[in-house]
Amino acid sequence: MAPSVEISIPNTTLSHTSPPHTVYHITLRLPLRSFTVPKRYSDFSAFHNTLISQTNAPPPAPLPSKTWFANTVSNERLREDRRDGLEQYLRAINESDDGRWRGSPAWRAFLNLPTAVTTTGSGSTNTSSRLHAAITDPASTNAPITDPTLWLDCYRDMKSHLHDARLQLSRRDQETTPQKQHESSAQAKKSLVRAGTIITTLDDGLKNIGASHSASSIGGGEIRRRKDLLINARKEKDGLEDLLHAMATKSRLDHAVASVQDKEALMNVGNAGDGASSGRRAPARSGRVLGKETERTRELDNDGVLQLQRQMMQSQDQNVDELMKIIIRQKELGTQINEELEVQNELLKLADEETDILKGKLDVGKKRIGKIS
After folding, report:
1. How many domains is the chain built from?
2. pLDDT tens across 29-82, in order?
3. How far is CA 253 from CA 95, 168, 175, 259, in A?
4. Rounded Cα gap, residues 325 and 246, in angstroms
5. DSSP H or E run through 355
């Protein structure tokens, strides 16, 4: 049965690259969410060829042809016609009674759709079961992750765990009781451990996909892109773990400060009692109120309490130093992530420029071939 998804291309934009190209914004409306996927015409062309190779049949609607003597960047009418043609092309596949194109990996990968839940007539394991097995216990399955689409599903599941961990940390910061804070921290820790396990599984699966030479294997550029996704995911997980440790350290500091304030209040009460009883004999314990003693101070004299307070202040200073190191580490991680993103953006710009240059050379070659023939 066809997935309940609505597809449209409501608008187009021009990229900020040099030279610019047209970007078609594909809007997909699923039952629970909506999102937009930006694509250029070359992406549609590559997808069309992959779709035919996987299904051995042309789609129900033709792909709008490429123009040689005009471009969509400078011709608004041509850009609108191609937008409408690409929208009709996708809608024809989505609304066709024949679901072979919608069930192909190329369709799901092109639109970033979640894997469809389908079963064979013999009752074999469906894709959702394979995803669950690959995430929960990949060592128990004889076939580790070798499907690029299954790899993307695992990656989305890992990102959802990181998102849950971030929500739990935000909730922990808003809680007022220690019990609720502990529960939020435990849930965040559980999600981070889960995400770390999936990251390891994804790393192994990416090695398997890279070593595979099957028809469904992906190119070297996509392998590098997915490696970058894993690197960023690891950095995000490490940053959330550092934040969790920092929150735990801050809680210990708050409890220690509250304890010191209670002791200072205890000593102030004793000093006030000494002033009020001028002319009378001071008590043997220098005004310490027995009812406000703790297990740690009950057996100590005044010098012992003072020494204990100094030790607690020294411990607090050490905790502050540890917290400062964690904050500095988070700042360094943020700086490194920003530098990595700048490098990746420059690489993408260079790759786009090289692609346009190569495209121009191919166009010139085709024209020359046409003149010769």
Report:
1. 2
2. 876 567 888 999 999 999 999 999 999 999 999 999 887 777 888 888 999 999
3. 61, 21, 17, 10
4. 10
5. helix 302-372
40 with 93, same domain: the answer is: yes
3-state SS assignment for residue 87: helix
Q: Give the Cα separation of 87 and 368 in Å (integer).
A: 33
Please report, for residues 23, 158, 210, the alpha-carbon distance to residue 205 in angstroms, rounded to integers and kept in the order given: 32, 14, 9
Q: Which of 205, 233, 251 is the last residue of a domain?
A: 251
Q: Can you list the positions of beta strands (E) in the chain? A: 6-14, 22-29, 34-39
Q: Which H or E run contains 24?
A: strand 22-29
- The answer to whether 192 and 165 are in contact (CB under 8 A) is yes
Is residue 202 exposed (0-12), middle (13-18) or buried (19+ Cβ within 10 Å)? Answer: buried
Phi, psi torsion values for 208, nearest 5 degrees: -65, -40
Question: Per-residue pLDDT tens for 325-340?
Answer: 899 989 888 888 998 8
DSSP state of 281: P
Domain boundary among 111, 137, 157: 111
